[in-house]
Every structure is written in C-alpha cells, then in structure tokens.
C-alpha cells in the first residue's frame, strides 16, 4: 500500500506474476481498495487472496517510528504472515526504510548482524556487481560496513554463484590515503578478513566489473542507485535527440533500434525487479516506490525463486556461520595487535 | 608534474593550447624533464617558458602535509607565480587535494570561506548542472556545505549566466525526513537563506536539469563524478556491443555514428577540461589525473578565458560581499530563533 502508485501497480504486477508463473499471492492492505483494483483484471484461475491491514506507512513517514506505531500497517502485517508461516516472502514497493525496519522488528536480525542492508545488482560490461547498502542505513559505523561486506560476499558466492567474490570499498580514490573517516577505519578492518578484499574502488568501478561486491553506506549507495538510473535514462534520451537531428541518422535508427531495445533491457531496473534485503531472518524483496507492473512482476518472480530454492535459508545459515567465523578472525587480529 | 602521465600529456596539452589560442604558458616542474618533452614538439613561435620546481606531490601523498613539507613542489611553486603576479591562473592535473591545499596555503581563502570546493559542470538534458564539492573535502560539517551552496549560487549566476539559480542538496530522498545527520542540519540552514533553495534532490536530478547547482560533500561528489564517467562510458560500449551483434544494425550504425560522436562530445569530460576551484583568492583549474591532451588544452583555454574576462575577480568580489550578506541573514535567523 505504500508505493508511489499503490495499490494499482502492485495489484497489476501481482496478477501478472500469478498468471505468468502460477505463483500464489496474498495481497496485504485495505481490502476494499485492493478488491476495486482486482476487479479491473481477469483473475479467474489465479491463486490470489486478500489480507486486511488498516494502516499504511507513507514515503514521508519516519520509518522505524511509523513501523512501531502502526501495528496494523500493511508492511508489518505482511511480515507477520511470513513469521506465522502463511507466506514465504515479502515483496514491497513502499518506503524502503520501513520495509527494513518492519523486517527487523517482526522477523528479527540474523545473529551477528546489527543492521540489514539492501543489496542491488547492477549490470556491468562483464557480468554483475552487487552494491550494498543502497537503502536505509544513512549514518553508518565501520562495523556496519564490515557486516555489509561479509553479507555481500556470502550472497555473491551462494546466490550469484561467483567462486571467489572480489570485494571493494567505495571511496573517492584508490589509494589508502583517500577516503573519509568512515571508510578509512573500515578499510583497515577489511584488510584483516580472509576474503578477496581488493581495497578502495571508485565510482567508475561499479560498471567495469572489476569487483563483484561494492560496499558503501546507504546514503552513498542510494545516490549511486538513483544517479545510475537517471544517467542511463539521460544518455538514452541524449542519443535519441542526436539521432533525430538528421534524416540519415533517423533512417539509421530503424536498423539500430533493436540494439537500443536490448541495451535498455540490460540496464532497465524493472528487469531485476527488486533488491533483496539481507540480514533479517527471512526473505524480503524491496522494489522502487515508482516501480512499474513489470518490475513488480519480476520482483515477485525472483522472490518466489529464492524461496522455492531455499536460497534464503541457505544464505541465513551461511551468513550466521561464516559471519561469526569472519568476526572471530577480526577479534584475533585485534587481540594480536593489542598484545 | 603530479598527473598520472605527467609531464608528457601536460606538455602536449600546453603546446596545443599555445598554438591554438596563442596563450602564453609557463610550465612549472623539473625543467630537464620538461625540456625533453618540449623537444618532441614544434614550439617555434609559441610563448612557452619553463620554471623550475624540484619536488612533486604524488597521488599517494597526504595532500596538506605534502604541500606544507614540499616547499619546492611544482604545485606550490605554480601558485607562488600567481601570487607574485608572474602568472594569472594555475592549471593542474595532479593530486586535487594538493592543488586545493596549495591554493589555500599560498593564495589564501576568500573572506568567510572555510574550505574551497571543486565545482564540476555536468551536461544535462536541458543545460548544465554545477556539482560541488567533487574533490578534497571528504568530511564536512553543515557550515561547509552551506558555503558550497553559496559559492555555487554565485558562480551559476555570474559565470554560467543563470538568472536565479536553483540550488538542491543531494540526498537519498526528497522528503525532509530523509538524509543523514550532515544533510539534515544543512537542509534546515539552507531553508533560511534567501536564494532559490529547492531542498533535497536525488542522484537522478543531476541529469534532468531540475536544478542548476547540486551541493554535496567531496566524498559523495567524487563518487558521483567518477560514477558518471564510468557509466557514460559503459553505456556507450554496451550500445556498440548490441549494435555490432547484427549485420543490419551494423549497417544502421553507419548512419547514426555521427549522432554517437555528437553525444560523446556532449558528455566527454575532456570538452570541459577542468573544474574551477572556488573559494581561494585566485583562479585555479583542476583537471583529472588521467586527463588526455585535449582535456589539458581545454582546461588551459577555459582558465585563460576566466582570467581574461576578469571572471574570477568579479566572482571573488561577489563571493565576499554576497557571502557575508547571506551569512548575516543566517545569523539573524539564528538570533530570531534563539530569542
């Protein structure tokens, strides 16, 4: 109920996912409004049910306050359904801070994780790069970024299927002398953990495929995410503008428009649908507030695949065991330094 | 002497600027190395002189320490030439933090400015957006961002020629409840200053031309800058890859390649050449460490135009008077609130 165009887009996306992939879906929110939207679609034979929630956390609400106060908010009720076993995954295009807060509040965090992170997959020249956090955690301490790095590494290995994921810390330069207070301390801790940590990476490295995981705080990650979408969009428009300036190139466009379409598909966030929320004891998929029907459909599809394949359970186990092992290394290092 | 490919690229760029625009240039650095490079070019009739400096601040050096320690570094000597009146402008592709530090150290800051900022112009769908700081100031206090906002406003009005520049503060969402500790306090101060402050803007707004000036700290600004370059490059490559996959679209490319070229020219940082350093008592143009010859040539050209038109002097006057006026407003507001 909290998305920019809720619940029309969400309902349409759910109907599309139910029809295309046969996924059973429970719509959580104001059942009267949801029913109105459902009536616009042909839902015969689809396994779509409704579950009432009287409140909504809006985009302007302070996330964790609102989640605590609004006991009957759609996002909180949705997580309750997962907790009680009536649902396997939460998919939301509402306030992402609230989704994170509700996930923590209802499902609790995995052992050793202070703050869950939203992990967004970016298409690159060769493969994919996972960037986290792109959401809620705007003011981070070094230990939070270290946790993001470990979660990203485990996710890249066990879900994306990278053998030895390379991890980079986003900074304003490659040299150790660069960075701000937060990244400098994080950098020195990450060097002591036994995974493929390559050190600082720069903004450009997100798209050249140099690393598999890029770690940053949620403020920077969110700027990165929205800048990328805005720029890919602007680049497409600028190119089209240039092409339409001459008759010959307009003619040429007839031949290349399929390439444009393929390209757009590659960078279109709607293809990925949503970003998984890592670090809570369950699966949640976070979508853009302004998601279109296709994005919602794909997010539900990916979320369903995760749940079906037990990805999240495996991830939770791995996160807990490997996280503890990593952190013990860190303690050992600290003790060695102190001693 | 401090650029990634110094001094070969710098010398070639200087020769090109001297030849194309008749600009008199002093090359500052190891005169033996500079002479070697100059000998590769035909410099007859060009007004190029050499000035010796025995030291170099490298990319790995901690900027302000190195500038203080290395009295005879090329960047410091170059600013000394401006101070003594032997030169009008410094152009550097070296360590940008060092350029900033040397500029402050030798030429001093303008009245009321605690920290100078590097202001980068980004091409957008309609016009240009100035983003500052994109450099040295990685850990900022709210007052620094306020100063960046005022400098950006004055620059947009008096140099870019925007009547009433619209200012935005880069954040992770438009709502006042978003942002981190730094932006939330900055946001509340900026609302009390009598310019066109639109509030928070997001990453995507840099390229849609919604505002004329985007304010952020140097860490975030640097990520934005490098991400944009990386993404524009990746987008071009991805599109070409898609086009070359079929014969028909390869054929079509013959007709659209000029559009691609025009587009590339629009987003190519080399066309802008450098980013002015605002807030010091003089003109300096900061180029990428990895600048090509064209970027150096254009940076020298723009810097020369600034000096020739007295832009910087006017800017300095405006900055000082308007800055003080703005800050007085702020004091008045604070007193009103306190009283």
Q: Can you give a write-up of this model?
A:
The structure is a homodimer of 339-residue chains. The first copy, chain A, is an alpha/beta fold. Chain A folds into two domains: 1-108 and 280-308, Isopropylmalate Dehydrogenase, CATH 3.40.718; 120-271 and 312-339, Isopropylmalate Dehydrogenase (3-Layer(aba) Sandwich), CATH 3.40.718.10. In chain A, 52% of the residues lie in helices and 14% in strands. The first copy, chain A, contains twelve helices and ten strands. Chain A has helices at 8-21, 31-38, 63-69, 74-83, 96-107, 142-160, 181-190, 218-243, 247-267, 269-272, 293-308, 311-338, and strands spanning 25-29, 48-52, 89-92, 117-123, 128-132, 166-170, 196-201, 213-215, 275-278, 283-286. Chain A has an eight-stranded mixed beta sheet, with helices on both faces. In chain A, β1, α2 (31-38) and β2 form a beta-alpha-beta unit. The mean pLDDT of chain A is 88. Chains A, B: Catalyzes the reversible formation of acyl-phosphate (acyl-PO(4)) from acyl-[acyl-carrier-protein] (acyl-ACP). This enzyme utilizes acyl-ACP as fatty acyl donor, but not acyl-CoA. Chains A, B: It catalyses: a fatty acyl-[ACP] + phosphate = an acyl phosphate + holo-[ACP]. Chains A, B: Pathway: Lipid metabolism; phospholipid metabolism. Chains A, B: It holds the Pfam family FA_synthesis.
């Amino acid at each position: 109920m909290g998305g920019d165009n809720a619940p029309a887009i969400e309902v349409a996306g759910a109907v599309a996912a139910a029809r295309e992939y046969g996924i059973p879906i429970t719509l959580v929110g104001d059942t009267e409004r949801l029913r109105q939207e459902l009536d616009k679609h042909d839902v015969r034979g689809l396994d779509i049910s409704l579950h009432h929630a009287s409140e909504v956390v809006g985009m302007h609400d302070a996330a964790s306050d609102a989640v605590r106060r609004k006991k009957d908010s759609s996002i909180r009720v949705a997580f309750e359904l997962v907790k009680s076993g009536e649902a396997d995954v939460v998919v939301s295009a509402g306030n992402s801070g609230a989704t994170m807060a509700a996930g923590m509040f209802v499902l609790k965090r995995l052992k050793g994780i202070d703050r869950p992170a939203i992990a967004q997959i970016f298409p690159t020249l060769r493969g994919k790069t996972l960037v986290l956090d792109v959401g809620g955690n705007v003011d981070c301490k070094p230990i939070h970024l270290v946790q993001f790095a470990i979660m990203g590494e485990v996710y890249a290995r066990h879900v994306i299927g990278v053998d030895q994921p390379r991890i980079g810390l986003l900074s304003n330069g490659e040299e150790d002398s660069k960075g701000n207070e937060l990244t400098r301390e994080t950098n020195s801790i990450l060097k002591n953990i036994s995974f493929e940590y390559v050190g600082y990476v720069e903004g450009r490295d997100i798209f050249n495929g140099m690393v598999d995981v890029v770690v940053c705080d949620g403020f920077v990650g969110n700027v990165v995410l929205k800048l990328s979408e805005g720029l890919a969009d602007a680049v497409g428009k600028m190119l089209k503008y240039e092409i339409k300036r001459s008759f010959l190139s307009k003619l040429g466009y007839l031949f290349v428009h399929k390439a444009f379409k393929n390209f757009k598909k590659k960078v279109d966030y709607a293809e990925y649908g949503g970003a998984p929320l890592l670090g809570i004891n369950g699966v949640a998929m976070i979508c853009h507030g302004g998601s279109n029907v296709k994005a919602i459909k794909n997010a539900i599809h990916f979320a369903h695949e995760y749940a079906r394949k037990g990805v999240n359970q495996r991830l939770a186990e791995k996160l807990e065991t490997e996280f503890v092992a990593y952190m013990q290394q860190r303690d050992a290092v600290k003790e060695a330094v102190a001693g």
